[in-house]
């Protein structure tokens, strides 16, 4: 659609992405601050300056590390509904995002991709989408960290689209809002986000995977905290007295059925997933994720957890167990159905960008899950990110270009249909 000026002085799309990937923004599940890590402000401040440089003069970062900005409507387009694009700045907390070394694999010719360090290999058998990237450039990390395409690719694509609009002032558009959020990876990306003040009718998270895909459905998600209480006695005098809560927790986790776990499920199948154990002889907590596309199945899975937790203490008279269920997010499909233009216009934009549009489901969640529930319909659009949350994360530069074009096409479709 829009192209960069030949004499442009702004960083290229790929250069922006590489620069963002090198900024350490890993969030933390152990923190009780917001954002969970102060280092996320480092990228936020960079992005404010870059947004201002492409004409979004109101760009700012607030105390919660939300970066927001507005591209005002072209004359005559003030009545076009306000739309927004959102990406998150943080990276996955369980794999290092520090000292990222973006590594280029040019003119990919198929097969496995070996990374420079730690004998890390991106296996084609596990990444069949690699077949769609033959002859293209693929970016990975070097094997010592994740790459951070989730979701710095989305940020780079949004900035690139805004740069092209800035360099092509004849491009006519409605008002476009931008937001970059912290702490999405720890489920708190929009905890303090003011939807009403933001003022958009529809938003799009740029945080998806394969080219051409728009996702309108996520898991419904809860978490469970299972607390086992035992009895601590000096181990030298513990016979017939000690109740080691760590063993209760271990027995509980070991007893959970393998059927219905992440490693045995796919598609629309939900799961129960223990992700952490912490404690001592007296008290031990197990944290589990509960996921299902059907909200009515969440309490069913919670009952399974209670059943196996109670079984774990049967052999230990005097022990106790408590199960706490915390609501996390809900399937956004029902909320998106209230504003069908959000999906319809995105799908049309993808077709105009030369791809086959397809509607997908996320075996996870996005900031859009909570935003949609709070009245801001927010489908998730592809960015190209693949194999995220691990050392084998990668992205194809062609997909980044196509995602940028899709952003511009979405803006244009809204203007054309609603002016």
Please give a structural write-up:
It is a single chain. This protein has 419 residues and is of the alpha+beta class. The chain has 2 domains: 13-218 and 331-418, 3-Layer(aba) Sandwich (Aminopeptidase); 223-328, Alpha-Beta Plaits (2-Layer Sandwich). Helix content is 28%, strand content 22%. It contains 10 helices and 17 strands. It has helices at 13-21, 40-53, 149-167, 195-198, 245-255, 297-313, 333-336, 341-352, 367-373, 397-418; strands spanning 60-61, 67-71, 83-88, 103-105, 113-114, 121-122, 138-140, 176-181, 202-208, 213-218, 220-229, 271-279, 283-292, 320-329, 358-362, 380-382, 394-396. An 8-stranded mixed β-sheet has the order 1-2-8-3-9-16-10-15, with helices on both faces. The chain has a 4-stranded antiparallel β-sheet with strand order 12-13-11-14, covered by helices on one side. Helix 1 (13-21) runs antiparallel to helix 3 (149-167). The longest helix has 22 residues, at 397-418. The mean pLDDT is 96.
